[in-house]
Amino acid sequence: MIRILLADDEGLMLNSMKTIIATNFGDECEVFTAKTGRVAVEIAEEEKPDIALMDIHMPGLNGIEAMQKIREKNKNIQFIVITAYNKFDYAKDAISIGVFDFLSKPVSKASIIDVLTRAIKSVEEKRKKKIDNIRIREKLETVIPIIENGFVSNLLLQNGSKSENEYYKEIMNIEEEYAYIILLQFGEDYKNGVLTNPVGTGMRLQKEYDQIRQKISDTFSCIIGSMMSNRIVVVVFSNRESVDYDERISIIERTRNLVYALEESTDAKFMAGIGHTKELDKIKESYVEAIRCLDEGESHVAHVDDLPLAGKIDEDYPIDVERRMFNCIEQGDTMQAGQQAKIFFDMLCEKFGQYDDDIKLKVLELVMRAETMGVNAGGLDYGFRYRKDYLSSVLAMKNYSELSKWFISKISLVCENIAFKHEECSETVISKAMDYIDENYTKNISLDDVSKVVNISPYYFSKLFKEEAGVNFIDYLTKKRIDYAKELLEDNTYSIKEVCAMCGYSDPNYFSRIFKKKENVTPSEYRG
Predict the structure, then answer these.
(1) CA–CA dist 137, 174 (Å, integer)
(2) Average pLDDT over residues 37-48
(3) Beta-carbon contacts of residue 230 (< 8 Å; ≥ 6 apart)
(4) Predicted TM-score of the model (pTM)
(5) What is the mean pLDDT of residues 3-29?
(6) In the beta sheet, which residues pair with residue 237?
(7) How many domains are there within the chain?
């Protein structure tokens, strides 16, 4: 079915063209008519016509202006201009809009049939091309993941020859000589710095793999491996052998935004490790670095350059428990931090119980590390003499039970302060966001606008807003607008269109749909 819009202020002309179309094209075409430019724009927005025959001179909005507005939302429509004047007067404007052809009044039946036949053929050719492109894309979407996974396997397992890798590069149109690895890891939740239920989450997310792939490829120019348990390997290509500080920060930020986006869309928790840029035949080194980032990184997104230099740690030392404890401290999880502190202390006593001074020294070291973390997080203040009694108190302790209580209490206190600061910051951010929405909901504001005001990423802001406000951003904004609309509708001074604009909506039809969805009646019915 070809949808045709006829716009002319002469009723006789409209009826004549409708008859010609019905007689010569029959059920092949569906016809809509408008006598003004404004009505033509409204019909075009609602009905999405394929072809529009537009008279230049109509009351109010003229044909050129109407076509410009229609073109903004309908890029593929074929315009046929009808004019009783010299078409060259309008050639410049018409060319910029993309007019298919001109018809000069008086218009003959033969010319209408001819131009519509050509326009319909053009529409059908575009449709066929679009369908062919979709089919090609669907086939490629099936094949590309297989090719990419083969390339990733060759690179990481190094079981492919250099010529094989060159072949992969050629068929995938990859020209870069360098790349780095982003290793994504996911689970059901974070617990003590570890992602829980990795196998179950991996099985659950298999059905969402295509969606995950799309979000990754939207963020980076890369190839993507298959889902291996709860990990996905991403190879990001680069023209440079190394990255400077600013580019590294950009990579981390983009990866962090990707993690937020994946968490929003999959109902799972993600972490990411990022390795150094390497030549392709050495990319496995970047992969090993990315794994280390996941194991040793102190945040959900870690770059290998941000990790401390790795030294050898005594295999008897409970480093994993220590890391879990500090992850809990960073998150402000007082209960888990206290539990991990107790486990850590008990393991120290079990393995090194005969070294009293060393255990006391380690306890002091970890408490001061935790307090430094608290100061950096804004949860604690620092004064040079604040710890004046720490050393004497610890040295005076007679047994490990006493030392354990002191250690756990200090860790818990830091954690409580960090948790309080997190909550305070969240409340401040959301309070500021709500104030901004309350003051600007009558304007065309978006989630991106508000997140920029509070200076945090849109993904994190969206998540934080829902956690703190109990509803998502769009529902909160919509309620403010609809409540205001109800107030305005009770005053017959304003038309429905005016109420729509005063509430921050630009489209009256959309406003009516949203209003009915929320109130079960249309704005007109509500007004009664």
Answers:
(1) 19
(2) 90
(3) 185, 186, 187, 195, 198, 199, 201, 202
(4) 0.40
(5) 90
(6) 179
(7) 4
What confidence tens digit (pLDDT) does each residue in 284-340 have?
A: 889 989 998 888 766 789 898 887 655 566 778 888 888 888 888 877 888 888 999
Write the DSSP assignment of 264-307 as a string of letters: HHHSSEEEEEE---EEGGGHHHHHHHHHHHHHH-SSSEEEGGGS
Residue with tokens 């059908």: 124
| Nearest alpha-carbon partner for 179 in 286, 44, 296 | 286
Query: Which domain does 19 fall in, by range?
Result: 2-127
Per-range mean pLDDT, top range of 79-83, 182-186, 411-415, 428-432:
182-186
Of 276, 306, 336, which residue sits at a domain end? Answer: 306
Please state, in angstroms and rounded to a whole number, the distance separating the CA atoms of residues 357 and 435.
Answer: 55
Taking each continuous run of H as one helix and of E as one strand, the counts in the chain are 21, 13
Tell me the residue length of the chain: 528
Q: Check whether residue 291 and residue 220 sit in a common domain.
A: yes
Burial class (CB in 10 A: 0-12, 13-18, 19+), 443: exposed
Q: From the CB of residue 263, how many other CB atoms can be counted at a distance below 10 Å? A: 17
Torsion of CA 469, 479, 501, 436, to 10 degrees: -20
